[in-house]
Amino acid sequence: MKRKIALILALILAFSCLSTFALAAEIIPYASPTIGAKLAIMKAGTKTGELRISYSVDATGDATKLGVSTIKIYKSDGSYVETIKGTTDNGLVSSGISHVGTYSYNAVSGQYYYAEVTLFATIGSTSDSKTVTTATVKAP
Amino acid sequence: MNIQNGSSGRKYDFLEQLSVEDLESLLRLSSDSVETEAFLDAVTEVIVERERKAPTGRIPDVDTAWAEFQRDYNTAKERFQLAGKESKAIVEERRVASGRKQRSPLRPWRSVAVIAATLVISLACMVGVQATGLDVFGALARWTEETFHYALPTAEDNPIREALRNQGLPEELAPTWWPEGFLPSEPEVYESDIFRGVYITFENEDCAFRFRIRKFANQMDMPQLDYEKDSYPIETYVNYGRMFYIISNLDDTWATWTDGISLVIDIDGNITPDEIKSIINSMGG
Fold it and tell me: Is B170 exposed, middle or buried (0-12, 13-18, 19+ CB in 10 A)?
């Protein structure tokens, strides 16, 4: 009887291990061929209703294009507000090894917002992007 | 020195307050200066005087010491002549002063020889570097119409140090070594509400690496800086008390360090971890 119990436990343990290996094979490493480091933070500005979104994207080489592809603004309840597209004209897109800056957005004073900031880098023909969700901030 | 009268005067009266052990520790000082010699004589005086007033056996009886000297040193095989009459007091002084470091009469000449050897080796190295085409002597030489002198390398000779200094960043953190064949670019300044940074790219014909130093305005924002990594384990490397984390991100190797207050340094590129460690080692302490 004891031997049977021990055998059953051993089989359970073996199946558990096999399952773990199977799960591990499905995990995708969080790596990027073009982005080395990134940062996106939203804070209240000094002017009424101003939200300031600061960003930084470091490429793993000399990027032909890099920066912020989009900033999606949401209210604290998750309702969508607006999307700002990144361009060289508005300063959200540049080239080189890094792009760093702060973008000013006019929101409704007293309302709470968060942003989804998508950062990208293109090196040669390879491009990658990562999205960062900021903390919720009250517009001053 | 006249041990009976004492020549130390009132200058070292404070020695009376020290314990015998402290006084004996002081006797281990070694210097060629006249002032130190006078100080050590004063210490010796205090020890001898205390032993006379209250014998502890720390200093053997003079007669015993003299007998030991005659027995062990003034033998038929190793007999030597003493210059003049040795007073018992002087023998007693020498026993007390035995804790002092033995000063060799050759010491001054030995120091001169070391200095001379150092100068010769330095000059030989400079000549060797000069032969490779690098104008070492020109870099060190400074002159006007009236005077000529050598000058040590300054921040102007290392553009990275100058860039850090101009941005109010610690210039000693600038690397002073990088793999042969790589040339640094002009330092670039990056700025946002969150941090200000100086970035430099080092390139050769085939590849490049980057040195980034950032100063955060608010310590609480530093954890928001995310690094991409693959499944390769993170390695740590410590130099000058700084722990760098060496991260693998596919073809890119990334080393990062923070002082935990406001500074973050990153070195990344397609160079080997050993090369990154050598760059880290060149960053001052």
Answer: middle
Angstrom distance (rounded) from CA B251 to CA B249: 6
Is 70 exceeded by the pLDDT of residue B137? Answer: no
What is the tens place of the pLDDT at every residue in A38-72? 999 999 999 999 999 999 999 999 999 999 999 99
Reported for B245-252, long-range contacts at CB under 8 A and 24+ positions apart, including other chains, are B246/B273, B246/B276, B246/B277, B249/A31, B249/A32, B249/A36, B249/A60, B250/A31, B250/A32, B250/A33, B250/A60, B251/A33, B251/A60, B252/A36, B252/A60, B252/A61
Q: Do A56 and B225 touch (CB under 8 A)?
A: yes
Quote the tokens at residue B40: 């050590």
What residues of chain A lie within 8 A of the CB of B199, using their CB? 97-98
Q: Tell me the two tokens of residue B135.
A: 């104008």
The answer to whether A36 contacts B191, with C-beta atoms less than 8 Å apart, is no
Of A4, A34, A3, nearest to A123 by C-alpha is A34
The residue assigned the tokens 């760098």 is: B244
How close is the nearest chain B Cα to the Cα of A102, in Å?
5
Chain B interface, Cβ < 8 Å to A: 188, 190-195, 197, 199, 201, 208, 210, 212, 221, 224-231, 249-252, 254, 266, 268
Which distant-in-sequence residues (6+ apart) come within 8 Å of B13 by Cβ?
none
Distance CA B150, CA B119 (A): 14
Residue B57, C-beta contacts closer than 8 angstroms, at least 6 positions apart: none
- The ipTM, to two decimals, is 0.80
Helical H segments across chain B, by residue range: 20-26, 34-53, 62-72, 88-96, 107-131, 136-140, 159-166, 273-281
- State the DSSP string of A32-100: -SSEEEEEEEEEE-SSTTEEEEEEEEEEEEEEEEEEEEEEEEEETTS-EEEEEE--TTTTSEEEEEEEE
The one-letter amino acid code at B81 reads Q
pLDDT tens string B68-85:
666 765 554 444 444 444
